[in-house]
Amino acid sequence: MITPLLTEEDIEALRNETPGTAHVIHFNNAGCSLAPTPVVNTITAYLQQEALLGGYEAEAQYEQQLNNTYNVIARLINAQPEEITLVENASNGWCIAFHGIGLQPGDEVLISEFEYVTNMIGYLYGKQHYGITLTVIPNDEQGNFSITKLKEAITDKTRLIAVTHIASATGGVLPVEAIGAIAAEHHILYLLDACQSIGQLPVDVAQIQCDFLSVTGRKYLRAPRGTGFLYVSKKSQHKITPLFLDGHAVSTINEQSYQLLPNGKRFEFYEKNRATTLGLAKAVEYALHIGMDRIWNRIQYLATHLRNQLQLIEQVTLQDGGNIQCGIITFTVNHCDSKEVKEYLALHHINVSVGLARSTLLHMNKHQLNSVVRASVHYYNTLSETDFFIKTLSAFVQERKTSQAHPHSLK
């Protein structure tokens, strides 16, 4: 079945519900997307009720909608509501899973070249404090994660495969289903960092076969900052120990013992922002209404167009690799600091970000990169925006070239 593309009328309607598009060309969706009006209205409406009724009273009034957050997230990733834990960000969710496994001296963890700085800190902490060993699965010459090397790396000491679905500073996508099949075959725990993929492309945890999936709301989901979720499969919930607990996490307690809840709420704290929780649910519903296949098709279409145009600009080098690439486009300008590029684009109301070496340390060091410019497109972006981006970047390159050739001709 062919997925219908988003039409020009669809895009216009989506942009009308995204007020920020009238002010900026937002190519920083891998950092934080522009929130749609329904999400903003959901948050502000709840805050108004809190102000009028009181915090606990507003929560009681919205109890059904708050509980429904688990249901809509489960629909998004093909999970069960009982497998969802609400967290403040992907890093929090990832740490709950990684540090809760109970890694022991000699346990081996297999990782990719694309690990984000938070994950790297966790791995290094694990080496120093748990005594684990780390094995990096190398990419091939095309930038693809090597399934062959993964199979060869597995030993009887391998306790965990922990990889990032889409890296922070390159546009490649890992073959997460193939990785999951190998993890399942060898009965190895599988932790997937999906902070850049959820909201960008379809994700089915049943097909991936991951035990844990960490997600943020602010990126491609277009949810408010300070939101996210962790998926912990039902079969793996007993395999991780919550390191911190409050009364929200237990079903019963007496003077001698307590009993954890039989679901993902055992990893939560009671106190969280109810307004942004509803905002997260609305953002998920918004994505589901559009359709993840349609979103992914649109993002790939825009990203391919932008990559093709970037390749035509002298002194610009694309830094993305892999056979499957996403809406994150990374590049460098020869002999130019990426921050300078970002600042020039910002003067023309174009938002991009800079990926520093520390953000994706293994990948950046391997390719001898200090930084990259990261332009990340979303479905509400347009071809006219990508064309203006190319025109502006070309002007920057030309101005630099002129100033270097005639250093006293420009002030």
Secondary-structure blueprint:
Blueprint: H1 8-16, E1 25-26, H2 37-53, H3 55-61, H4 63-77, E2 84-87, H5 90-100, E3 108-112, H6 117-130, E4 133-137, H7 147-153, E5 158-164, H8 176-185, E6 189-193, H9 205-208, E7 212-216, E8 228-232, E9 250-253, E10 258-260, H10 274-290, H11 292-310, E11 316-318, E12 328-333, H12 338-347, E13 350-351, E14 353-356, H13 361-366, E15 371-376, H14 383-405
Parallel strand pairs: 1-13, 3-4, 3-5, 5-6, 6-7
Antiparallel strand pairs: 2-8, 7-8, 9-10, 11-12, 12-15, 14-15
Helix pairs in contact: 2-3, 2-10, 4-10, 5-6, 11-14
Question: Would you mind describing this structure in some detail?
Answer:
The protein folds into two domains: 8-35 and 291-400, Aspartate Aminotransferase, domain 1; 38-289, Aspartate Aminotransferase, domain 2 (3-Layer(aba) Sandwich), CATH 3.40.640. Helix content is 41%, strand content 16%. It has 411 residues and is α/β, with parallel strands linked by helices. Helix 8 (176-185) links the parallel strand 5 (158-164) and strand 6. It has helices spanning 8-16, 37-53, 55-61, 63-77, 90-100, 117-130, 147-153, 176-185, 205-208, 274-290, 292-310, 338-347, 361-366, 383-405, and strands at 25-26, 84-87, 108-112, 133-137, 158-164, 189-193, 212-216, 228-232, 250-253, 258-260, 316-318, 328-333, 350-351, 353-356, 371-376. The protein contains 14 helices and 15 strands. A seven-stranded mixed beta sheet has the order 2-8-7-6-5-3-4, sandwiched between helices. Strands 11-12-15-14 form a four-stranded antiparallel beta sheet. The chain has a two-stranded parallel sheet with strand order 1-13.
